[in-house]
Give the backbone structure.
Amino acid sequence: MKNTTTERRNERGSKNIPTTDSTPPTDFIRQVIEEDLKTNRYGGRVHTRFPPEPNGYLHIGHAKAICIDFGIAEDYGGLCNLRFDDTNPIKEESEYVEAIKEDVRWLGFDWGDREFYASDYFEQLYEYAVQLIKKGKAYVCDLSPDEIREYRGTITERGKDSPYRNRSIEENLDLFERMRAGEFEEGSHVLRAKIDMTHPNLLMRDPIMYRIIHATHHRTGDKWCIYPTYDFAHGQSDSIEGITHSLCSLEFEVHRPLYDWYLDALEIYHPQQIEFARLNLSHTVLRKRRLRPLVEEGYVSGWDDPRMPTLSGLRRRGCPPEAIRDFCNRTGIAKSDNLVDISLLEYCVRQDLNKRAPRVMAVLNPLRVVIDNYPEDKVEELDADNNPEDPSMGTRKIPFSRVIYIEREDFMEDPPKKYFRLAPGREVRLKHAYYITCVDVVKDERTGEVIELHCTYDPESRGGWAPDGRKVRGTLHWVSAIHSLEAEVRLYDHLFVKADPEDVEEGSDFKAALNPNSLETLTSCRVEPSLAGAAPGSRYQFLRKGYFCVDPDSTDGKLVFNRTVSLRDTWAKIQKAQKNS
Ligand code: ATP
Ligand code: MG
């Protein structure tokens, strides 16, 4: 058990959490927990839970919650349960359950054998409801949904009591049992807590505990036709599992009085609910009800489209889970909502991949270059380091031959000042290879487009260094034409052009801010032969071009790469601007 920040940090440093170099700061949740440990409030235990509703795929906002729930438990030698909050049979599916488990595991967290479902507690929750009826604290109400809304009142207007509020305990018990038995239609009866119809918090105005839903549940099948609401299920599930600190996002703050009321009324073990600010990320949306239409209306290719902020999308894009955890830690635990710039996430991804991703050469827009004085049939195997940041990653051989490809943008016929790449008569270095000089330019007769360059090479400059010490300003990446492999490369940009797509005028659609250029597909790229057979999910740095990840769409004949991030660090720029302002 750790009681001080210093001890915790030391402990964390020694733990096997890859590349998390941002120590989580002491935050208000950890302060509460440390106080509870001091006063022995929960017998020295720390037990949290992550409670996803299986009605969609997890996004990076959930990763934030996961890092908090699992991360805090881990820091204090405690436990974190995975609990599916599956109280709504209409929107939930087993497909989502499996995807959620995969994502949590992928992030690097382990719930051991503590995989629970709110639906496992349906019988117990029913018993609790019966207890509240017996205590005179719950009643069956026959008002229609519209009437219930009407009777509830508003923030400025008190609610009024339901005419069914004072039913006898016997009548309530009988009706509730018959609700369960399936005697009634949907919407005809609900079970409500008897609290206070004049309470300033609308959620406390006789909230609904059970409603009738004649639908098949993904786990309990047709056993039930009454289902507990989130509010009635959540705190009681926490209590059953012996959760100590029930951590959730800020929108549940107004639910806390109700959370406490049920546990107090039932006189059962009482965990503490604590709320933290949601993660909001710029240039994207982080709500399932926003993400779903993007998938269903075909704006993206699926939940795992690499432009999506879902964990499956980020995974396919090539973001390492360690970088996502690092990002979640860096953004801290706040008490009020804010918007985090997406460039911070990109920065974390770059930091991580810079250390780990092997460097390779890939030409995205190939321009053919013939080296006139290089022998026709000669092939040399040149040495190239796999990562200058980490010599232990070793070297590999790359073939060099008479015809190579360079990047189209690395040649200009009439270069402006400060353009140090290839131009007529200019000498540049080919990375890991030779100095070459451009001697001729071949153009398409009709269009005038440059279609081929002729160069000469200096045989003395093997490895990319001239023995006479003569300097060149430009170093280009390249691939050997006959040895290189064809590839498709997908370049991604922000999904939305607006930093906060939800910030739209009443009545207009957030989808209007979708970026029409969020995907650019390049189909005739050439990559070095060492990439043959690269497995989906493998990540590389393409020299000078960014970080890329092999997509599952790859076939034996053609590799497909997703650009994870470019090499441009806009986060550093933002920070500099902030410092100067
Ligand atoms: P969405 O709004 O995307 O539908 P949700 O809150 O309804 O999300 P749940 O499956 O109910 O999704 O969420 C599981 C947990 O994740 C909850 O404890 C919730 O507080 C937390 N969570 C969801 N979104 C975020 C976010 N953006 N930042 C931090 N925590 C989040
Ligand atoms: Mg929810």
